[in-house]
Request: fold
Amino acid sequence: MAGVPCGLMDQLTSMCAQAGHALSVDFRSLAVEPVPLPLGAAGLALLVIDTRAPHELAEGAYAERRRHCHDAAQALGLPSLRDASLPLLARLDARPLEQRRARHVVSENARVEQSLRILRGAEAGEVQRLAALGPLLSASHASLRDDFEVTVPHLDVAADTAEHAGALGARMVGGGFGGSVLALVAEDRREAVTRAVDAAYAARGWQPPRCFSALPGPGAARVA
Reply:
């Protein structure tokens, strides 16, 4: 049991992931599409920054945000916020908290669609386009921080410091309230970003983060 009213992303990814690919999942139809992610060809790397901040979702905050989104969709007369648009959210002006939660969901869906267009362009040989994923990661983090309000100082410092040290973009991953940050970096900036985050944590007296490179790998399989 996950202990929270979570979705299927982690489970489907664990089952369906392919090495060297991002995974596009339509959670309405449950259609799954692997999309090539040729980071090495673009001279890029994914840097994971494990903030060492406790990752606690079972305390009710995650369920609370899910409820806000459900209530926002109901107020808009929609089955899901997937069917909403940013202009439509003006109808929630009298419900500012739910409006912010809904704005994160709607804008994040748009960022996913934009990311897929970038990835498909890279698949067609335009690998330099992958750098454009960076600003989308940063915009996603800002939305998670300001509209969804699921970041914590450890996450924000890691993301901000990584960007100032040369990362193309950075975003918290997972459900928030702790956990890790994913930064898109040029290969030759990886060590500089790592050092900068280490220094930022040391200056605040925090436990050192754990930074390491990651590549998309295959899904789980039976071990003989």
Remarks:
- The chain has a mean pLDDT of 93.
- The chain is about 40% helix and 20% strand.
- The chain has one domain: 9-214.
